[in-house]
Every structure is written in structure tokens, then in C-alpha cells.
Amino acid sequence: MKFLQVSGVLASLTLVLTGCNSESSSSSPAVVSAPQSGLASCGPGSRPESGMQGRVSQADHDTGRAAAGFTCNTELVGQYIVPDAIGTVGGFKVERYIDSAGNECAFYDSTLLFPSNVLDLNAGVNVLDMSDPSNPTLATRLVTPAMDSPHESMVVAQDAGILAAVLGNPAFYPGIVDVYDISDNCLEPALQASAPVGFLGHESGISPDGKTFYSASPGTPTLTAVDISIPFLPLPIWTGNYTSHGLSISDDGNRAYLSSGNGKGVLILDVSEIQSRQPNPQVREIASITWPNQSIPQNAIPFTRNGKPYLLEIDEYSTDNPGEDSSVASHGEFVGAGRIIDISDETNPRIVSDLRLEVHEPENREAIKDDPGAANITGGYAGHYCDIPTRVDPDIAACSMILSGLRIFDIRDPENPREVAYFNAPVQPRIITQPAPASNWAMSKPAFAPERKEIWYTDGYSGFYVVRVTNDVW
Predict the structure, then answer these.
(1) Thinking of the domain 4-469, which architecture would CATH place it in?
(2) Which of 109, 190, 304, 379 has its CA 20 to 30 A from that of 327?
(3) How far apart are CA 112 and CA 152, in angstroms?
(4) pTM reported for the whole predicted model
(5) What is the pLDDT of residue 216?
């Protein structure tokens, strides 16, 4: 779970992944430990970080470097910014969809914590026309109950053209599930249902065929499968005793990969009886895996590389006590960050590599704790969401890492990932700067337009960005 101070309002947030171009910071001494994923080599057109990988120091703010932003093998293509924003303008998920008519759409929630975004007259899920990526334009805004406050639950089933979410917040909300059809015209999503069938909401998952929506809550053991095969008639068909943050469903719908509570890290479930619609379906635990520096597991995404199956997992938050989720300290010693997990033997998953930045390393935490935004109890230098452009042989992973912005990794060799690019957006002036100083707050799951080498993501304080990866690093 997560909470963040935004414009004096407690707003929800989370964490993300790993690193880039660096050297020791001049503003304070630090022991710099290079993480496994290494440092990016920034090519022409880059505006690299000035010091430790992932850091935006007080000196960067004082000299204006933070106001200009930092780039490494990336360039800004376009953006959608809410003018004169007071509250929040970007949330936790970005999704891309191309409908049957060829319309290209982006969907993103504007709600870190409802109703903070109401201050911007910007509540709900924004639907952007992406026909010109250099000039995203607002097509419509979805303001049904779950879309007003989806927390981290907004998802798109690409195969079915279904957009869904459950009404949620950092703890839980009543669980109203909204289902939209976007297959024919994603610019004007057609509401199919808005019904209290998800019990308690916070996060979610959806089967790729668009027939099953999973409503998840990390604070309550109420993981619920909702049959949305008839979109206008959603029906709960199973509820299990699982506290689940984000979850991803395998392509065949038979496995659920839970970023789980109760110290289990990642939990693999057999949900084949739900997928096949067996009467009184039973769910079976296959395996779980934890790690020593676990903070709060956020999401785990299945993929294959050269035919071998893996999970890409990311933690949020940091802690002074490894393995104790209850101790949330944004400048704590231990940061979960990210990892790649080999699931060739799904009964015995094993971690094969880490995705970390220098700002995540324990020996560097003391030096950076007073950087602007670093001490925010729900943000700071930590991870939040990652995503990949395809589940089959992805070349890269992109992760939103709050103060460190969008981080991009080459994962063609899953056992030796390396950072190749980043984009830390220009820091925008804010009307209210305490207790959360102006900084980046990159929290969203990114989306991709691979044919143009674009990554789409949102920053909680400044809005929606279209970023192109340059210099042939993707």
C-alpha cells in the first residue's frame, strides 16, 4: 500500500526500478556502489545526471539542472499537461490501445488519492487521442465510480478491447467494478457495467482474453475473480483468502502471479479452474519466493526470452527492517527495487538478477536522505511500476522510479540486465511545496509504442509524457 503528501493532501503512491550514468555527487560525500545493472552510456543529445545514478540533489535544484530535467538516450516527443495544476495530474497506470478503426488511444488515471485531483477539475481517467504523438489531445474523461478513483487498478485487455477498473484507494473501497468496451472506438469508450462485484479494491489483474477481471486488495484477504465475458453482466465467481497487491495473469489465463502480502513476495497460483469456468472453482498454490531486501512487492509480469519463462518483479517503498512491510521509511536502508525471476521450474522459482540504481544501495542512503522529496514517507528514491513492450522476447523493460524518473533497461540477457536510458522530467514549479517539495514523482506503469520506440508514462505532479528512446539503445 502507499500514501503520499501532495499539495497538503495525503495522496497514494508507490515504487519502481533501476539506474544510469553517474559519478560521486559534489553536494555531499557518498560511497557509490554500482548496482548489477550498471550505468548507461549516454550518447548525443543527452543531458546526463550530474552525480550518483538516479539522484536529483539539492545542488541540482539550486543550479537549475533539475528544472531542465535529465535525459540519457531519450528525447521528449510530446506531453499532456494540466495548466496551473494544484492537486495531482498523473496516477499509477498508462495503457495504450489501437481500435478496429485504427484510432490510437492512451488511457491514464489522474488520481493519486481521490479527491486531490478534483482541485484541478481533472478527476477520472483521461482518454487521449494519440494520432499525433507530439500533440496528445484530450478526447474524453471517464468519471464513473471506479474511474474516478481506480487507484492502481485500471487495466486493458488487448485481445478483447476491454477497459476495466475497481473503485479503490490505499486501503480499500467498496469494490465497484467499471467495464468499458473500447474495441470499436477507443476515443469514446462505451460503458458496459458499473457494479459492486469486486468487494474491496486497490489493484487488479485481467486475463488477456478479457473474460476475467481480478479485484485485489493488499490490506484484506479478498482476491476476487469477476466474470466479464458478458461485459454488461459482470458476476463474481470466486473469492479467495489472499492479500494481493498487483497481479498478472498468464497468456492462457491459467496462472496468476501475485505480488503478495504476508511475507510471501511473489506467489504463483493455478487459476485454471476459474479460467475454464468450473463450478465451485478451486485455486491451488504452486510456489512462492521472497528475497532478503524485500520491501512491498508491487507487481510481477510474466515474459519469455528465447523460450525460457521469467517474471519481472518490482517492489515499492523502503524500510529499515528487511522483510518487515510495516516499517515504511522512504530514506530507510533497504530498498526492494526490482528483479528478474526464473520460473522454468514454477515449483522452484529463483532470482537471477536485480534491477537497482546507486540511490537504492544501502551504503548510499545516508548521503541522499535530505535531497528534495527524499524523505517523503511514500516516495523518495524507490521503485513503483515496471512494464515490458511484449511478453515474448522483450528487448527492454521500463520502470517508473519516483524521484529518479523513468528508467530503461536492456533485458535481452535476463541474467545480466543493464540500464541503457532514462528520462527524468523537468521539475515543474508547484503552488504548495511542503511537505512534498517540487520534484519528480514518476509512479505509473508505462505503456509502449514499439514501432516508434516510444514509452508513455505519467508523473504525479506534471502529467503525461511521450518519450522516444534514441541512439539505437533499444
Answers:
(1) 7 Propeller (2.130)
(2) 109
(3) 9
(4) 0.90
(5) 93
